[in-house]
Prior knowledge:
By secondary structure, this protein is mainly α. The chain has one domain. It is 75% helix and 0% strand. 16% of the residues are buried. The mean pLDDT is 85. The site of zinc ion has 4 residues, from loops.
Amino acid sequence: MSQKRAAEDARRRAFINVSLALxxxxxxxxxPSCGVFQPxxxxxxxxxxxxSIDPNKYARERLVIPFRIAWQIAIAExxxxxxxxxxxxxxxxxxxxxAAKERIKFLTxxxxxxxxxxxxxxxxxTVWVLILLxxxxxxxxxxxxx
Length: 146
Ligand SMILES: [Zn+2]
């Protein structure tokens, strides 16, 4: 396993542990038989997560797939879509919603980072070509003076 991969794995493990530790922040105030949040809780969750969120959209999924499993699925998929879906199913899981948002930020920032890394060798090559050209120019001038 490469060093980069090991570092990424360690970061991921820390991320999972933190989010599970923060799990206690859950307030299971949705109805245990239908999964629906009461209107005052809906209002609170919308204020916290954005008005476009409907906390009861996936009420049934809350009853079918337990929180811990849902979170493990999101981590296994590790895509912005998976974390967004998790956030919609478990909007009351404050700690994991926060962790999911951070991960979405990281994952959506990645293409730019990758792009920069791709450009770096090109930049280095350009610099070396310039140094070579300057070197050749000086040799040329020295030869011409004779
Ligand atoms: Zn109910």
